[in-house]
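Our preliminary data section would be incomplete without showing what the modeling component actually yields. Below, a chain of 302 amino acids is followed by its predicted structure, encoded as tokens that our downstream tools consume directly.
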Amino acid sequence: MASVYDKEIRQEPDMLHRVLRLLYTSHQPSFSKVELERIGVTVGPFDISNPLFINDNKQCLFQPFDEHEIKRWEIPAYAANWEAPVRSTKGNKDVLAFLNTNFTFRSNGATRLCTELGWSVIDPRVVHSRNKHFLFSGHGSQLGANFPSWQVWSIQVWREKNHAGHDYQTGPSIRLIISTDAIGPFDRILLNELGAITECLAFRRTQREYTPYPIIPILVLSLFGPRSGRIIQASYEVLTGKIGLLISPILSFSNKNDPSFDLFLRFMASYPPESNSLDQALARMSISSPPPGLDLAFMERM
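Predicted structure:
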């Protein structure tokens, strides 16, 4: 259903401001593809079951850890007792604990998976500045309506070492791990998902050192009820101001043997575009239309 402020929102020239106005004025817990495309946001599928899509670094900007290579990384014996059991009586915290245990303690020899990568956690308060509703919420009324609570568990940026051995950010990519008590509908994006993406894009746009980059990529690992989640890739074209979203199907985390855990873990251990010097590839990429050859069937139901 269109917002009563729909016309005013569409007349807003800045795409990011359009999304912010939609978030503030709609009082909805989730949004359909039609509602987002009405204000100019492109929506398509994040086709995690298609190897051709996953291996195409011009479309799948965050390259997941290799599915065969990651099998070499195991939880070492001394850390096995840290593994948090996933029980059906608990929700997002157990799922996240199991993912974090694997990510932190999986080792290949003496090297941990988490130390093999260049992701570094930043303080959410640095990002959580102006738009004070979209990274965290309490129970009860938020944005003028009653929504289930949500929070951001982790905001990460990619860092590498310079010649002096100091860490520095090499590009604009951000990775988020978020959760909410809400039930995630397969055909709509949740308020906390869209809000966190918008908050991070607004933050990056204020940082002038990232304006030379043609695209600002955001990867979202989203957990919600009932013991489910999905992966969202967001892109912001700096020159045109266009925003594109690629959204995966809903994944189940009902028990620790679900393949969804390995898939989430691979994207927790993913590499952003700047790690592979893909600036030229990013410059050639357009988010104005979906990648060729992809099945849009499940997203057309949004």
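The chain has one domain: 6-62+119-261+280-288+295-300. The chain is about 30% helix and 25% strand. Preliminary results of this kind motivate Aim 1 of the renewal.
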